[in-house]
Design a protein that fits this description.
The structure is a single chain. It is globular and about 40 Å long. The protein is built from 4 helices and 7 strands. Strands 1-2-3-4-5-7-6 form a 7-stranded mixed β-sheet.
Length: 172
């Protein structure tokens, strides 16, 4: 599959939302139970770090970063989301999207990427590990979804170059 990576634009939202809803429907991608409006989603994701994968003129996946905190000391830490259309899963789309998102994060000055993944979502764990993420913990019974407690694996990737030798003024 030839995959073009390009920025995620507002006009893409209907297709992106459909792919997001497919992930929600699996019960193994997120604690969310409904996709938000474009406005709500856009407000919570970093503008320079939103991408889609296009194959044959159709969006087959998307990836984006969300800040983990409003605090200035966490300005270089972001949470990863990667979603692939049900018909395109298993074909390497997620891996390509995540690699492109890592590159975008480096350009944006992000020094730590983190991902919270349900342990059952083994494919997602694998693509993150291949992209340089490592498991740093397991958050037990982090939340309830469909009436049952779910654990979440916490994975992170530190940039080998962003933030090295940087002096960050945190106003203290």
């Amino acid at each position: 599959m030839v995959l073009e990576i390009r920025p995620l634009l507002p006009k893409d939202w209907n297709r992106v939302r459909t792919i997001y809803e497919q992930g929600i429907a699996t019960g193994d991608a997120t604690f969310e139970t409904t996709a938000p409006s474009w406005e709500a989603w856009s407000e919570n994701h970093l503008e320079g770090c939103r991408i889609v994968g296009v194959s044959g003129g159709r969006i087959v996946g998307w990836a984006a970063l969300a800040p983990v905190s409003e605090r200035c000391v966490h300005g270089g830490v972001a949470e990863v989301s990667v979603y692939v259309d049900a018909d395109a899963r298993g074909g390497g789309v997620g891996q390509v999207l995540l690699a492109a998102l890592v590159e975008a994060s480096e350009r944006a000055g992000i020094w730590t990427l983190q991902a919270g993944i349900f342990p059952k979502n083994e494919a997602s764990v694998r693509i993150h590990e291949r992209a340089g993420f490592r498991q740093v913990g397991r958050r037990e019974r982090l939340g309830r979804l469909a009436g049952r407690w779910r654990d979440v694996l916490l994975l992170e990737r530190r940039s080998p170059s962003v933030g090295i030798d940087a002096r960050v003024d945190v106003g203290v």
